[in-house]
Amino acid sequence: MTRAAKIFLSAGVFIFPSKNSNDEFHILIKDSLENNEITITGLSDATKTEINIPYFGVINDTRYPVTAVADDAFKSSHWLRSVTIQGSVTQIGRNAFANCSNLVSVTIEHDGKSFGLSRINSFAFGNCVSLVDINLTNAIHLSMIDRGAFSGCKSLKFIALPECCRRLDEFVFRGCENLREVMLPVTVEEVPGSAFIECVRLREIK
């Protein structure tokens, strides 16, 4: 559902559900308010290099949590270099950051509450060839990483998964040719044989 209201986000950025940009708006999204939640679906400022997916938005003086990054939301955003995702976000959609060729760093925040990121969907960070640093240790509810979520992340050298992670899907790190070390928690119940295919420099899985 599309709302015509302007949304102010706690991180100090505006959202307006229209394809027509206004200079005062830093971020433009098509907002879907379902179950009193907001899904981030895109950016308007093509020069923005750093984004902070905020904890909540305000519509008509009412707060709504930002709980998801939509499928394809930032796909091929080549200017993007750094992303911080606050703890209210529970889902990162399919291809959400795929082909962001200059994305270097992703930080997942968590504030200790009972919700948080629980799933990274298929190819969410696929072919982010410059991605060096992604901190998943704060994603204490992350139970599932879907097919190809980090495939083709050629600059990634190290990854540590949180204790809550239970399942990796097929090809999740396929073609991460500089990946050298992976820390898997004992909670992981299933790791397909294809999960680390074409990781030619992988030396150690702990």
Structure report:
This protein has 206 residues and is mainly β. Helix content is 0%, strand content 25%. The chain is built from no helices and 16 strands. The chain has strands at 7-9, 14-15, 38-40, 50-53, 56-59, 62-69, 82-85, 91-92, 105-108, 119-120, 133-135, 144-145, 158-160, 167-168, 181-183, 204-205. Strands 1, 2, 3, 5, 6, 8, 10, 12 and 14 form a 9-stranded mixed beta sheet that branches. The protein has a 4-stranded parallel beta sheet with strand order 4-7-9-11, with no helix packed on it. The protein has a 3-stranded parallel beta sheet with strand order 13-15-16, with no helix packed on it. The N and C termini lie far apart (45 Å). Mean pLDDT is 80; it is low at 1-32.
Quick description:
The protein has 206 residues and is mainly β.
- Rg for CA atoms: 17 Å
Distance between termini? 45 Å
- Backbone structural class: mainly beta
SSE run: EEEEEEEEEEEEEEEE
Approximately what portion of the residues adopt beta-strand conformation?
A: 15-25%
Largest sheet: 9 strands, mixed
Mean pLDDT: 80
Helix % is under 10%
SSE layout and pairing:
Layout: E1 7-9, E2 14-15, E3 38-40, E4 50-53, E5 56-59, E6 62-69, E7 82-85, E8 91-92, E9 105-108, E10 119-120, E11 133-135, E12 144-145, E13 158-160, E14 167-168, E15 181-183, E16 204-205
Parallel strand pairs: 3-6, 4-7, 6-8, 7-9, 8-10, 9-11, 10-12, 12-14, 13-15, 15-16
Antiparallel strand pairs: 1-2, 1-5, 5-6
List keywords for this structure.
single chain; 206 residues; mainly beta; nine-stranded mixed sheet; four-stranded parallel sheet; 16 strands; disordered N terminus
